[in-house]
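#onboarding

Welcome to the new folks! Below is a worked example of what a typical request in this channel looks like: someone posts a single protein sequence, and someone else replies with the predicted structure as tokens. Don't worry about understanding the tokens yet, we'll cover that in week two.

Example request:
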Amino acid sequence: MSRGARTAYLAPEGFVAELAHELGAVAFAHERLLAAAGPRKPAAWAQNTWIDPIEIAIGSIGDGAKKLRAIQRNWAVYAPRLHRRAMLIQEQLPVVSAKPLVFGTPPPKAPLGSWTLLDANTVLAAPHCTSPFPNGEVHFVEDRTGPPSRAYLKLWEALTVIGERPGPGQVCLDLGSSPGGWSWALARLGARVISVDRAPLAPEVARLPGIEYIAESAFALDPSAIGPIDWLFSDVICYPLRLLSLVERWLAAGTCRRLVCTIKFQGETDHAAAARFAARRPNRRRRRRPRASRSRRLRAAIAGASSRRGRRSRPGTCTAGRGDRRRRRSRPESQPA
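Example response:
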């Protein structure tokens, strides 16, 4: 098969339907791995993208490992089927570290390919993928004492994936911030944080130097009253189109340089709303993912999203962030009482 003739996209757990909808025509599906004709295209619902995958005939476990090693050193296996046979092949390949990442540590730079067994004697392998992490999954060494919730892990993943983060002295606006997980993470980076929510911050976060708390709704805040900011962050609970209106208001004000938001779908995934977010992505702010996704992703003004269905995280958020302990409003701000 010629280069660029096919690309494979790996969906996160529970989001195969969303990825299939986004891709349109799918050549074949191998559990969460969907192959589509043509060169790579942006895929917000892909956790990892396999570029130019090739099929390799193998005669044995040793032959499979030998042929993969002949292509390159580092490989990560995706083994939804024939798991035992795939693991025996992977055991004969050089070990790829999957240790949790200390936040702030750069992503691995060594090329990491992905492979799977289509059947007992056929390997599908892609030497080049968009993510430097095995199967696109980022895991962190967690801080179990400082932050008031585990929501900060979503922010850590977003910043790791886009390859940028606030620096000391930069001004960050954190909308929908209570109880303060994201504000805590931003303050740890040395940023000056303006933390906005009608609900209060956890006392241990409110006491941190560099955090200014404003007890107000994110939607009532006037951009001109805040002035220029380096980063806008939003993990606010609201319907996607209301978030889009908020994002567009800040973009129109021209006072914000970068935005990182989570999109939270109620019920079924609103593909039309997701498309509108993607359409708002300024071309000049497009960035190549360090390994490759962002997934992911509805970059643009948006660096991630989540679904409230079963509290699953969408591509772009950290899977470790599931089960957020925050005690927040039980309904979105935009939802009538």
